Amino acid sequence: MIPESSIRAQLPSTLRQLDLPGLGELYRGKVRDNYSRGDRIVMITTDRVSAFDHVLGTIPFKGEVLSRLTLFWFDKVKDLAPTHLIDAPDPSVMVVKRAKALPVEIVIRGYITGSLWRDYQAGKAGAYGIAWPKGLKKDQRFDQPIITPSTKAEYGKHDEPISEAEILKQGLVAPEVWREATAIAHRLFQRGQEWAASRGLILVDTKYEMGLADGKLVVIDEIHTPDSSRYWVAEGYEERFARGAEQEMLDKENIRQWLIKEHGFSGHGQPPPLSDDVRVMLAQKYIEAFERLTGTAFESQVGSVAARIEKNLKAKGYL
Ligand SMILES: Nc1ncnc2c1ncn2[C@@H]1O[C@H](COP(=O)(O)OP(=O)(O)O)[C@@H](O)[C@H]1O
Ligand SMILES: [Mg+2]
What we know:
binds adenosine-5'-diphosphate, alpha+beta, 2 domains, binds magnesium ion, 14 strands, Phosphorylase Kinase, domain 1, seven-stranded antiparallel sheet, about 25% strand
């Protein structure tokens, strides 16, 4: 692992945003700065971190970890479904084929935890149209992975749970497209769980985005990253589950827990500022997830991420 002193040294040089109007039309999401021109998007994964649909600040090396992990996973699943990837001119940048994104996110879960657990416990998990068994325990494994779709919300709003029946009734997605999208999600998730297991991790749940490009369904955005997924350490899962203890997490739930427990923040009002110590701790979690999943040490350079990206984009003719 990159030493803590390097992570600290990177704190002032993280990538908050990148203004490169020469790349095309900007859509600034919570995490990525997306420049589109024609049927291509240059997706710059910044170091921004969001939770409960709010941007909280930046985490050293986060953009690079996410972008490189997505590349890693795209390669691992390339026999299962086409993806939007065209080129990766920088460790934090992907050039992708622009698709017409489905207006729903395909969340697939192997375990009941997080927001679903909170809703289930409060008797509010009905919106998915799923007949949840009674008496489930927190962090319990489902017999089969379950898809809990959500609508894709605008900035500051929350994604809303939606049922398959409602998606079809409202015509948000055509039935045959929905059938294919969910089949792809199950295949991707199975591959993801198998790989994670081989690395001593549990892929607990994840979120896929898919879109139509040239009439074909493609996997877009990111996959199986700690932002879009939950990962637990496999060793000790059963024992922790049996005594009702927290699982050992390598994902964004760390920041959600910090916000809820230390600041009572769960998405309403102004989020608290991130201390440098929390930013370093979260960087270590992201890097640990990268190293455990890929089995390789994470190496990077301390210094301006923006300058590096501009240099690489120029060298490869994108600027
Ligand atoms: N190939 C693609 N075609 C069109 N849109 C895409 C593609 N890949 C990703 N996107 C969209 O680009 C955005 C990526 O930036 P992000 O910071 O994740 O935004 P958001 O805050 O909307 O989640 C997302 O809105 C995602 O749906
Ligand atoms: Mg996103």
